[in-house]
Amino acid sequence: MAVVMLLAVNLLLSSALGVSVSVSGRAPQPSAAGAPTRGEVDQEAVFQGHLQLQYELLRYQWAATAIIIAVLTVVSVILGWWLAGRVLRPIRSVTSTARRLSLSNLHQRIAMQGPDDELKELADTFDDMLDRLERSTDAQRRFAANASHELKTPLALDRALLQVAFGELPEEMLEARDELLASNSRQHRLIDGLLMLAAAEHTLTNAEPVDLADLARRVLCEHPGATVDLSPALTSGDPVLVERLIANLVENAEKYNDQRRFIAVRTGTGNGGAVLTVENTGQEIAHEVVSSLFEPFRRLTSDRTESVSGAGLGLSIVAAITRVHGGTIDAVPRTGGGLAVTVRLPDMGSVLKAQLRFSTGGRG
């Protein structure tokens, strides 16, 4: 609008100056004698000077207008960018918080300050939704943990009673005893897995420097025979959970192997983080079913469930521990059968920065 007004004023001034030239500075008429007199020459010079002055004024006027328009354009762009940033900042805060959310940091809130407008109402509604989601998730975790604890005691008592009552049995009853004890052991493993899964999905409370190579060596002491390539791989996390992650991967590689019995464990660094890879031989796995292996109680086939002991929680626990440490997990079927699982955990610096950002609600 200001630019349009400037242009209109310039056009009006140009028109007025043109009229002034034609009225006040009209060219003198020659005398009847034919030769111009001295007065006529002076009048002609005044006319030409006046006309030149009018043209100079018009030129400077348009030059000044162009400069003013350029300055106004720059100021308008800067002011518009600043205002747009202030208006969109709450939306960016909502988007950033939603992008960072996971089961391990549902405590984060937007907590927007400012006038009670539509954007603040949107942020407050989002925070209320997170409150309800966090309460629901906490209740689910407490139920799983409490139920598992309550079930462990009677199962332990049942096992003790079975061992005492069936201490001396005739030969034909030994098979039934062994089946009962095996069923009791499976229930124990299931409950232990549920407890570990509930613990793995909580926010980290004990993070310290850990080396994946050291933890892998400790796990492999109980699982000899694997091909190893262990280079230092420093990260930050709960050493108990990270060791459980490695143990579950190695145990899974042993359980679902074939007659080749090949297992490879590698640690190292890459892309600014610590990397663990566990490979094994085994049955061929379709690419489309690999992602489902990280879901609780999910197995490839019913035959696999019957032929291998386990609670079906091993890889889901691995995925939960990886998520709570801010890492990623990938599984790729191997050519000829088997699976290669790669876990990438952030380095110590990245973990500390993420924890600081979470503790400050994303403002760090």
Automatic annotation (TrEMBL):
Enzyme Commission no: 2.7.13.3
An example molecular function term from Gene Ontology annotations: phosphorelay sensor kinase activity
Gene3D superfamilies in alphabetical order: 1.10.287.130, 6.10.340.10, Histidine kinase-like ATPase, C-terminal domain
Main location: membrane
Domain HAMP: 85-138
Domain Histidine kinase: 146-349
Subcellular location: Cell membrane
Reaction(s) catalysed (UniProt annotation): ATP + protein L-histidine = ADP + protein N-phospho-L-histidine
Endpoints of the signal sequence: 1-21
Catalytic class of the enzyme: transferase
Transmembrane domains' residue ranges: 60-84
GO cellular-component term (any): plasma membrane
Keyword Transmembrane helix: yes
Sorted UniProt keywords: Kinase, Membrane, Phosphoprotein, Signal, Transferase, Transmembrane, Transmembrane helix, Two-component regulatory system
Domain of life: Bacteria
SMART domains xref list: HAMP, HATPase_c, HisKA
UniProt protein name: histidine kinase
Organism this protein belongs to: Nonomuraea polychroma
